């Protein structure tokens, strides 16, 4: 009888294509994921504020290059549009 070995399931195999995850760790990850899904939902305005802040940090950290000027300009225009819509939304709420 031939025994088929699956190296991706072996714990101490350094060339395995996937990291070994045992049953205890798998259950712990499932519990952590289920608690994350129960977290209260953010409003659209809060999500847009976080997104625009992240995009501004990204644009500020990446130096302008000749080949990426169009992408950078499009991102800056999207940030400006998001700021305008957030300002309108906050005025409407007030």
Can you tell me about this structure?
With 94 residues, the chain is mainly alpha-helical. It contains 3 helices and no strands. α2 runs antiparallel to α3. The longest helix has 25 residues, at 69-93. The N and C termini lie far apart (76 Å). The relative contact order is 0.08. The mean pLDDT is 76.
How would you classify the helix and strand content by structural class?
Answer: mainly alpha
Q: In what range is the share of β-strand residues?
A: under 5%
Shape: flat
- How confident overall, as mean pLDDT? 76
The secondary-structure element order is: HHH
Low-confidence stretches: none
Describe the protein's topology.
Layout: H1 23-37, H2 44-61, H3 69-93
List keywords for this structure.
mainly alpha; 94 residues; 3 helices
Q: How do you describe this structure in short?
A:
The protein has 94 residues and is mostly helical.
């Amino acid at each position: 009888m031939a025994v088929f070995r699956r190296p991706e399931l072996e714990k101490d195999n350094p060339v395995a294509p996937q990291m070994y995850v045992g049953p205890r760790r798998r259950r712990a990850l499932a519990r952590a994921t289920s608690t994350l899904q129960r977290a209260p939902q953010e409003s659209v305005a809060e999500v847009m504020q976080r997104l625009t802040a992240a995009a501004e940090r990204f644009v500020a950290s990446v130096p302008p290059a000749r080949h990426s000027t169009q992408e950078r300009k499009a991102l800056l225009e999207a940030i400006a549009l998001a700021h305008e819509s957030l300002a309108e939304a906050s005025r409407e709420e007030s």
